[in-house]
Amino acid sequence: MKVLWLTNVPSPYRVDFFNELGKYCHLTVLFEKSDSSEREKGWVNHNFTNFKGVFLKGKTIDVDKAICPIVVKILRRYRYDFIVVTNLATPTGIMAIEYMKIHKIPYLLEGDGGFTKSGKGIKERYKKHLVKGALAYLSSSKSLDDYFLTYGATPEDIYRYPFTSVLEKDIIPYVLNQEEKEQIKSRLGITKKKIVLSIGQFIHRKGYDILLRASQNLNADTGVYIIGGKPTEEYEKLVKELKLTSVYFTPYKSKDALKDYSLVADLFVLPTREDVWGLVINEAMANGLPVITTDRCVAGLELIEEGKNGYIVQVGDIALLEERMIQLLEDNSLRLMMANFNLETIKCYTIETMAKRHMEIFKELLAE
């Protein structure tokens, strides 16, 4: 089976997925760019072992987008059993879709997640034109189902798959005991008794100002670690204004270093104003962490069962976020129950199951 995949940059989780999917088919991936300028150096993954990765020649127009007319030449020249487009919002992806529409070449649309807008206006009408007419739609969630349906898909053409960045080997076998945690804490130089962890870019959309305000009344023996780069002037000013002495902004870390911080943490918080998925949720669950996130985080809406493995709070609800954090920090048995629930839940959301599900979908479509 020959599969062509169109995407923008070789993000680490996508390359892991492509390497796994490439075990089952002849996979070629077209990348618009070799990296994303908004990400730290070392974020991308060029370890293409089980698939053919091609960096298209083109003109960069954004941090992770480029115009690559050569994509049309490739579509014209080669034949594939399936063509999957994930860069729907880039000029290269749009160019490819328009060419395939004109020449009646079947293609699939896949997204990580999404939120539906009004459906009104010129841009929204054009979006409907782009989305409508795909052979199938590969969706990660109910939210993305609704998005595809709003813009022209039919229910019978939508296929679900488990979206993730977690490999089977990344899931810890059990929740660490306190002695094991203290050993890692000592190595990291962490002295706080309890740890609240958050990981993400230091941008307004991630909502770290909300987390800072919700941390004012945490016990002095609780440390709030926010990993993602250099804090903004706004965050530093807010820390001083609120007199927060137990908040630690930590630079970007490697995957192994992030693992250590996750292993010693007591809970994970993503106070995002909007995330079309939020892979840090998957990763926190794989490390046995209870999760608190918002009603604008698709991963949370899809993976969190209220009170069983975490909590969903409304965006900007500082009081409830504070209440949920304190509740979990003070209840050891509740945290352990949620941690074990997450370790079981995330087993269905691995790179391996994601690749196998894609192959099931491809075979089902071929049979039709």
TrEMBL record:
An MF annotation (GO) of this entry: glycosyltransferase activity
Domain named Glycosyl transferase family: which ranges? 181-340
InterPro entries named in the record: Glyco_trans_1
- Lineage top rank: taxon: Bacteria
Q: What is this protein called?
A: Glycosyltransferase family 4 protein
- Source organism of this protein record: Mobilitalea sibirica
